[in-house]
Design goal:
By secondary structure, the protein is of the alpha+beta class. The chain has five helices and five strands, in the order βαββαββααα. The chain has a five-stranded antiparallel beta sheet with strand order 2-3-1-5-4. β2 and β3 form a beta hairpin.
Amino acid sequence: MVRVKSRYLLCEINVQDRSCLLLLDDRAVALAVKAAVARTHGDYGAALCSSRFSVKYLNAHTGIVFLRFPKMCYKLLWSALPFITCIETRGQTISCFLNCLHVGGTIRTCQKFLIRYNTQQLHRMLPKCKNEEEKQQVRKAILNCTLTRGNREEFEDSESEEDEEE
């Protein structure tokens, strides 16, 4: 028996008003992607995209979405993403665009990339912090991204000891 291979596309949904992200759901994103593929590549692209295409994960707070599709047609789907200009959901039209961050063979590789990407974003935020409290929150978020479970527990224990000493 032959294993069916898939590709996972890690995308970021960019909108002007971040509160609009909370209105998104996975069906709306899937319909927008399928419509863009059909407009761009016609019936051939729509037929390829309809088999085994799904939205595996959508985080409405951050705008991160995982798209799964067959390995043979990932270039068709990837080339249609720039043509998504809006997503219709719950009776509203949200103007947006999708930024492709990573293409991976498994969800795990996409998750690892997402952790590295979020850490880089936090490092970019650090110089822009206005006061020391914000800097501490960003540093703590960076450590939460990079520490393993055992190291994180040790860090939290040492941090609580430092607070008690002060």
